[in-house]
Design a protein that fits this description.
The protein is mostly helical. The chain has helices spanning 2-12, 19-29, 40-62, 68-80, 87-98. Helix 1 runs antiparallel to helix 2. The termini are far apart.
């Protein structure tokens, strides 16, 4: 259905970007079955464009100008290309504040961090 949606938008919607043709082609070829970022055309596009996106978001932040859509796009791109997400930070916080423990990738079992006397629990 995704190639069809992209073609419909291209033909009858206010969004008449040529990017929709690229999206429809990526979905049709199957390279973007889970995410457009996995399609060769978008891999090439993001390799070229992401440094500029990063600079725009950084400069906007330095100027105190919110750019929520661009910031979210950059955060999504960064999180998607990481091997491991930020759940390790969440596990550490849960252990620190509630002694919930955490799992490690190098050893089986539940562990608790050496948080010192300031830790809850």
């Amino acid at each position: 259905p995704m190639p069809t949606i992209a073609r419909i938008w291209r033909a009858g919607c206010i969004i008449r970007s040529q990017m929709l043709d690229t999206m429809a082609e990526a979905f049709s070829k199957g390279g973007a079955s889970t995410n457009l970022l996995m399609a060769p055309a978008f891999i090439a596009l993001m390799q070229e464009a992401h440094p500029s996106l990063r600079r725009i978001v950084a400069r906007a932040s330095e100027a105190g100008s919110p750019v929520p859509a661009l910031s979210s796009a950059l955060a999504y791109f960064d999180s998607y290309r990481q091997g491991r997400g930020t759940s390790n930070l969440i596990q550490a916080q849960r252990d620190f504040f509630g002694a919930h423990g955490f799992e490690r990738i190098d050893d089986k079992g539940a562990f608790h961090g050496p948080w010192g006397s300031g830790a809850a629990g």
